[in-house]
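Protocol step 4 of 6.
Sequence for Probable membrane transporter protein (Formivibrio citricus) entered exactly as in the expression construct, tag removed. Do not edit the line below.
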Amino acid sequence: MEIILLVLIGLSAGIASGLFGIGGGVIIVPALLYLLKFPVHRAIGTSLAALLLPIGAAAAFTYFRAGHVDIRAAIIIALTLFAGAWGGAMIATRLDSSTLRILMGLFLIALGVYTLLSHKG
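Step 5 output, structure tokens:
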């Protein structure tokens, strides 16, 4: 059953990433927490490990071939993303699980509200 859930989580995250450009972690981390009962730090670490290659390679290549990638912007974001991810991981590994869960929940709520209220094209 766990393998089936992991496959469904991966497919869901991949589809959402390709459709909406969201990080798969928005799908993967909550799914690992609630469906498979992973501890929060393990869910985040597993999500990051799973996302290293598939998201960047498959989806980005498809958008690149269609002419929808700004290479300059992508390079700048990638370089700063590396630094930000390292810093965020350093902070997260020092937080207790309940604080990290609360912060993640607040972030996802804020992201959802912003997405719903944004009226731009």
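Step 6, annotate. Residues 7 and 50 are 12 Å apart (CA to CA).
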